[in-house]
Amino acid sequence: MSQQQTKNSITLKGSAQIICEYLRFAINSVLFQRGLYPPESFKAEQEYGLTLLISEDPLIKGFISDILRKSEEWILQKEVKKLSLVIINVSNKEVLECWDFNVQYEEGDLVLSKEKNEKVSSKDLKKIQLEIRDVMLQVAATISYLPLLDCRCSFDIYIHANSECNIPEKWMEAAPITISNAQNVQLKSFSTNLHKMDTVVTYKLMD
How does DSSP assign the chain, residue by residue? Predict the structure, then answer.
């Protein structure tokens, strides 16, 4: 095994960070492109060779950061099955759209993991970033043909975790998500070889 391979290996923590960084950009992209908040409240960041928009609203930033901080911790413990970004009609509380980010757990590089005495992946980071870039481009393309949200909307994020998780005090258990007259689109997936992420959007077909 070369020194370069050892240096470039991805640890479980590094993989969980990659997953949560994707979630940060994907969630913000949906909020921006679905028009939930004014365009001027977002700032541009460069990532994956793309210009992506991130909310500068302190409440939104804090909410997403808290969710992803806990998600990273639980992903490391294999406690998370998926995160759901839910878009809700403010006036009647109807769920109009749900973005599911499904997490699967993979074995990594078994030979290298044995040598390093911890579970690692030897997958090239640039290849992972290219896979994520393809997903982000598809997120943008998918949003362009979703039904127009012609009402005031809010959003929430659900973490689908194992029941024995230690839930933060201010969090609460949520009811199952249901969307009437629903259609869904399966997006591309990406993998670190330690974690695989599938993204699916389910939306209400408007009358």
Answer: --HHHHHTPEEHHHHHHHHHHHHHHHHHHHHHHTTSS-GGGEEEEEETTEEEEEE--HHHHHHHHHHHHHHHHHHHTT-EEEEEEEEEETTT--EEEEEEEEEEE----HHHHHHHTS-EE---HHHHHHHHHHHHHHHHHHHTTSPP--S-EEEEEEEEE-TTS---TT----PPP--TTEEEEEEEEEE-SSEEEEEEEEEEPP-
